[in-house]
Amino acid sequence: MAPSKKFVNGPDPLKGQVFQFHVYRARGITDNLRPDVPYAEAKTKKNPVLRGIWLFCAAFLMEWFRFIRERIWRHTGFDSLRRIIPYIEDYEPWYEPLVIPRPDDLSQKVDSLDSGQAQTSPTNESQDEEDDEEEKFPTPPLYYTIQDYRRAYLSGTLTPTDVVRSILGLIHPKDAPHSQAVTATLIPSALAAAEASTERYKQGRPLGPLDGVPTVVKDEYDVAGYQTTLGSRNIYASTEDGHPSTWCVQQLEQAGAIVIAKSAMTEFGLDATGNNPIYGTPRNPYNRRYYTGGSSSGTGYSVAVGLVPVGLGSDGGGSIRIPAGFCGVFGLKPTHGRVSFRPGQNHSITCACLGPMAADIESLATVFEVIAKPDPSSHFPELKSPLDLRMPPPSSDEEDPNRLLGIPIAWVSQASPAVQTLINSLIRKLTTTHGFRTVPISIPFLPEGQLAHAMTILTDAATLLPPPPATRNLTPANRLLLALGRTTPATDYLLAQKLRRLLMQHLAWLWEQHPGMLIITPTAGCAGLKIGRESDAVQGGFGVSDGDSTMECMRYAWLANFCGLPSLSIPVGFVQARGGDVPVGMMVTGEWCAEERLLRFGRVVERVLYEEGMQGRRRRPGCWVDVLERARGRARERAAESGEERE
């Protein structure tokens, strides 16, 4: 098979098969004639929800009795890959899904060439006037964007210092109304950065669109002056060791963005709920009976309630996209390796990546363009800059790659009916009035792939953390998960990596058949995740272990992590639930390095949600904070005080 022309090390385009390789060789069957692998749920058993003293006891037994670990490991379904050995045995394992584009690859420029238009910065204030009518907002957007902050600063009506001071009062001290969204804040550092930005605006020398914009950074990143805990009791970088910030945080700060806090996360990022009994669990901004989703829970919450327009998260199995979906904001998981962890380490190099979350697409694109700058050791080329977010007009060409949506129908049908209804109605809107078309697609061994991803993540985690008794300071839920990770045989781990190659090659084959296609699924299989008992989310408690709910949250998100693909969660509406509505996200996944295409599609959907018949699909939560208005109040007080002093 000839190597991919788009990528230095891309997977060979090869359709996943129902029979073994040698059967196809003997029969001379080509890729296109191979039958699709029918979707079938893996044969797994229900796992009990564990909480309180029962969870503590289960963690103890799992850690100290191997026969119990092995029984639970099989009960979870991790041995199911052995049943498909005949279909994956001839594949070579693929351990890290790093796919690097060729520096001179024309596919990196194809989006702008397809449009036939000059490139325009996503932060260009005149862009809306240049857009096609269908891409304009029919009504003003609900959330403040990066440009709203920039305009306020340039006009002189507000300063970054006013804004930062107004936010700090909402997250500090610990009894502040939104304090559970963050784990730490360095007030002197944030105010110093704000004063420096304020001075640059006074002198007419702002650094760019991000100068003075407040942001939060997940506690998985290193930030100079902050300690890094990964949501745990452990300290991996202290306030005294002089550690530098993660490369992408450095890029944000050099662009003038102001880090106001480290945001909350689940311990080690090993849960999709957002539950953290150590630092506290932020509640869903729309419905306090529900979780925010995780593991980037604090960033999702902070953006949704309006504390910041943008923030940084990380994603090893949906940890950016799940909280984005549950909190009604946008979340981008970039191509694996595109955003650098350096000089720190990627704690799950087989699946995890860093990425942004935002209240609107243009802000998301602006941050992504900054943090995706390659570090000196990266093999990724520079992004085409500026990113062009304008969608080309509909084409009469049935093969138009700009408006092709692939729908894995059997897989999508596994989501809850309410989630399917929201997404299907939006797809109908896009196809009937916006020139998009759909094509049914099939991806083999998806249930087995999800188990392979979970097995890989847990085994990776088990190699990073010491075995018992050193686990005593961890939450019981994670002690249980790490015990499962230590149980995985090397042979099963290798089977998971063989399946990874099959999936990556099949996806490459799909994009060979349908160039430019975007794959549409729900962000999560469920409409939010309800907090089972109030005691589950209490700070200082045992927490909860609900493996089945976590897997349902990750039903669709895992594929992009396991195969290294870029993926975007887009808010598309709400589902009624007890205690209030719950946001629902739609996920769009593209070929490796197709972030610009994803953002362009997200921008179209963002505008469609404000059209007639779609109203109400986006709205602010009741606890939303008007940060700019609070800052204006502070500015008026400051002006009044200085006036009194002059008198």
Automatic annotation (TrEMBL):
Residues 114-125 have a biased composition (Polar residues). Belongs to the amidase family. It holds the Pfam family Amidase. This is Amidase domain-containing protein. It comes from the Eukaryota. PANTHER family: AMIDASE DOMAIN-CONTAINING PROTEIN, TRANSAMIDASE. Transmembrane segments: none annotated. One of its GO terms (molecular function) is catalytic activity. The lineage of its organism: Eukaryota, Fungi, Dikarya, Ascomycota, Pezizomycotina. Residues 106-139 are annotated as: Disordered. Residues 179-599 form the Amidase domain. Residues 126-135 have a biased composition (Acidic residues).
